[in-house]
Design goal:
Layout (H helix, E strand, L loop, with lengths): L16 H10 L24 H13 L12 E7 L2 E8 L9 E11 L6 E9 L5 E8 L8 E5 L2 E10 L3 E7 L2 H9 L2 E7 L5 E7 L3 H10 L1
Antiparallel strand pairs: 1-2, 2-3, 3-4, 4-5, 5-8, 6-7, 6-9, 7-8, 9-10
Helix pairs in contact: 3-4
Length: 221
């Protein structure tokens, strides 16, 4: 899924700044939600199966359930900006014979470095593969994975555990409930904190104005 590029960014104020800048120079940061490039796999052609095997395969194919019907129309995509947040909703029309389609929404906040204009942190709010409301934060690589990411809202700190890393980025996430959504909606600023592998701390302060409208939009999806 490719996000709309119509978004505003918010300033990056990190400590230590030079440590993160050097890390980013050595490790290019990939934008969250971009499509990964797949490896090309070369497979040998199988020999033709004997006639009796082909007959059995044909029977098996006939017994397989039919593929789901394609949607009756094009996917509708709507993008809205709420201050620094971008809320994207996609609505798939109902397939033939179905009564209703499916609508999914997710919000993204991209945090950039003022000098290099590069994205350094991506904050997502949406639902994971199990349809659980989730907050996910993507950082560069070169971090202490065991320490996770701290999301500080006022006097409260939530710990996000890293779920995966690839060659350019790592993602930490946490499921959120009504209490966390309420706390986030009332906040004007948040701090995203993580530690580099050499032990140095990085703190990213970001304004979250508009997140209340984002959460309201997500609740309707």
């Amino acid at each position: 899924m490719i996000l709309s590029r119509l978004f505003r960014t918010t300033s990056f104020r990190a400590s230590p700044f030079l440590a993160l800048a050097a890390l980013l120079a050595a490790t290019p940061f990939a934008v969250l939600f971009s499509e990964d490039t797949g490896a090309v796999t070369v497979a040998q052609t199988q020999q033709a199966a004997p006639a009796q095997n082909r007959t059995a395969q044909n029977r098996t194919a006939q017994n397989q359930p039919a593929a789901p019907a394609a949607p009756a129309g094009p996917v509708k995509t709507e993008t809205q900006s709420f201050d620094n947040w971008v809320l994207t909703c996609q609505e798939v029309p109902p397939a033939a014979g179905a009564k209703a389609g499916k609508k999914t929404c997710f919000a993204v906040l991209r945090i950039t470095d003022n000098q290099s204009k590069r994205v350094v942190v991506v904050w997502k709010i949406g639902r994971d593969g199990k349809d659980v409301p989730t907050i996910a934060i993507t950082t560069p690589t070169g971090v202490l994975v065991r320490d996770g990411v701290d999301l500080v809202l006022g006097q409260n700190t939530r710990k996000l555990a890293y779920q995966w890393c690839n060659g350019t980025e790592c993602e930490a996430s946490i499921a959120y409930d009504a209490a966390l959504a309420k706390e986030l909606s009332a906040a004007k600023e948040a701090t995203i904190a993580f530690r580099l592998q050499d032990g140095r701390q990085v703190n990213v302060k970001v304004g979250v104005t508009g997140v209340d409208k984002v959460l309201a939009g997500l609740a309707k999806s």
